[in-house]
Design a protein that fits this description.
With about 160 residues, the chain is an alpha+beta fold. It is built from four helices and six strands. α1 crosses α2. The structure holds zinc ion (ZN) (2 copies).
């Protein structure tokens, strides 16, 4: 069963608003799917007209719903004032989303991710079925081969998404 990205985006937006996190009122309701993204899962793009477009890697649609939700939550928080990067303000909001909804929003896995990992394609993705934490791997590893032998730090079971 595939995830419905627009529905999940609406849910994440409602969750952030419920916590009074000042996300932009101008987030486009339609998630743009990126078919070619291999090094990132999501992206938040500010258009010339001031609206924000949220991008999601198409491959994530087949992953557990929690993985989509926490990626969308990560991107939506970039629409808050002063949150273009993963600075203290963005981190504080991410911490509040994580505490309230059990997400594992962290700074990795997006177009803002810097460093050497960013240019190596992520060939395998293992995700937590509970909190959505992502374990991207550039090569086959014991975790990729046998995710059932491992647990997420939240205690959730792990599943290979691709
Ligand atoms: Zn980010
Ligand atoms: Zn977890």
């Amino acid at each position: 069963m595939m995830n419905d990205p627009d529905r999940l985006l609406a849910r994440v937006i409602a969750q952030a608003r419920a916590l009074d996190i000042p996300i932009s009122p101008h987030i486009l309701p339609q998630v743009q799917l990126n078919r070619r993204a291999v090094t990132r899962f999501g992206c938040c793009i500010r258009q010339a007209d001031g609206a924000y477009r949220i991008e999601l890697a198409q491959r994530l649609l087949a992953a557990p719903e929690a993985a989509c939700l926490q990626t969308l939550a990560h991107e939506v928080l970039h629409t808050c004032p002063g949150c273009r990067n993963h600075g203290p303000r963005w981190k504080a909001y991410a911490g509040r989303m994580n505490a309230a909804y059990g997400y594992a929003v962290s700074r990795t896995g997006t177009c803002q991710q810097l460093g050497v990992e960013d240019i190596r394609p992520i060939r395998h993705l293992v995700v937590c079925t509970r909190c959505g934490r992502q374990f991207p791997r550039t090569r086959l590893s014991p975790l990729v081969a046998h995710p059932e032998r491992y647990r997420c730090t939240c205690g959730g079971t792990l599943r290979r998404a691709y």
